[in-house]
Automatic annotation (TrEMBL):
Domain of life: Eukaryota
MF term (GO), any: acyltransferase activity, transferring groups other than amino-acyl groups
SUPFAM superfamilies xrefs: Acyl-CoA N-acyltransferases (Nat) (SSF55729)
Region named Disordered: 80-99
Protein name as catalogued: N-acetyltransferase domain-containing protein
UniProt domain N-acetyltransferase: residue ranges: 103-249
One Pfam family linked to the record: Acetyltransf_1
Bias kind Polar residues: ranges: 86-99
PANTHER family with a match to the protein in the record: GNAT FAMILY ACETYLTRANSFERASE, N-ACETYLTRANSFERASE DOMAIN-CONTAINING PROTEIN
UniProt-listed InterPro entries: Acyl_CoA_acyltransferase (IPR016181), GNAT_dom (IPR000182), Trichothecene_AcTrans (IPR052523)
């Protein structure tokens, strides 16, 4: 699930793209909860404030596992003092497909304390004949597993229809601190993945909210399948319909 928010930040400090390090996991979890706080599916799956406190810890632990996984790239965007010669800074959400470079490992330790404003997780292509299983989530007590499992099944079916069993880069999660939207962070993180798709000659895949769809279309993705699920609101007799769109990026399409 990927979300684009509308609040504009007043800070114009340039941004740089980094691979996440373990010390970033808590901030990733904080941004995730702030960015997705009003998402209807999240609220249905994790229906009380107490459950959502547990979810934040689940996100932190999953981020730690993903950062340590060689088949997953967790990216973060940090504010950085202005450097006019840096190739991986940006100041506008312009939708261009020039991928800014990721800061090298030798620079990470020195730069890690800088403020993170956004994160993304890209799962790498894995062939079905490869013995690999991504680290499992540890869901908090009180999670509505019926709704969660129902949505996971719907999303898996959507991906199967969109790309079949072909290995692909998958943008699993992306979030920006709502106070720092429209500064270019989302484009930087998406462009990183598109460069990998073009380099390796494999598709890119993601599931987007309806509101975020124009952003991904601008970035070069094509809408493929609508994913939907009707669910009962906890404690009520009425039901709601939740929808997202599966998007596919084809190498060389931009």
């Amino acid at each position: 699930m990927n979300y684009i928010f509308s609040l504009r930040a007043c800070n114009t400090m340039p941004l740089r793209l980094y691979p996440a390090v373990p010390a970033d996991a808590n901030r990733i979890s904080e941004i995730h909860m702030a960015a997705f706080a009003s998402n209807a599916m999240l609220l249905a799956q994790f229906p009380t404030p107490e459950v959502r406190v547990g979810l934040r810890e689940s996100i932190r632990l999953k981020a730690l596992a993903d950062i340590d996984d060689p088949k997953v790239s967790v990216l973060v965007v940090r504010e950085h003092p202005f450097d006019p010669d840096s190739p991986n800074t940006t100041g506008a959400e312009d939708g261009s497909n020039q991928c800014p470079g990721v800061v090298r490992e030798r620079e990470m330790e020195e730069s890690a304390p800088r403020g993170i404003i956004a994160f993304a997780k890209w799962s790498h292509p894995v062939s079905k004949d490869v013995d690999y299983e991504e680290a499992a989530w540890a869901w908090p007590a009180g999670t509505n597993m019926r709704i969660l499992n129902g949505w996971v099944k719907a999303a898996e079916e959507g991906q199967e229809e969109a790309v079949g069993d072909r290995p692909c880069y998958r943008l699993t999660f992306m979030g920006t601190d709502p106070a720092h939207e429209r500064r270019g962070a989302a484009s930087m993180m998406v462009n990183w993945g598109l460069e990998q798709c073009n380099k390796d000659g494999v598709p890119g895949y993601l599931e987007s909210t309806l509101e975020a769809a124009p952003f991904y279309e601008k970035m070069g993705f094509a809408a493929s399948v609508k994913i939907s699920m009707r669910y009962l609101i906890e404690g009520q007799d009425q039901s709601e319909m939740y929808e997202e769109i599966a998007f596919v990026y084809r190498p060389g399409s931009t």
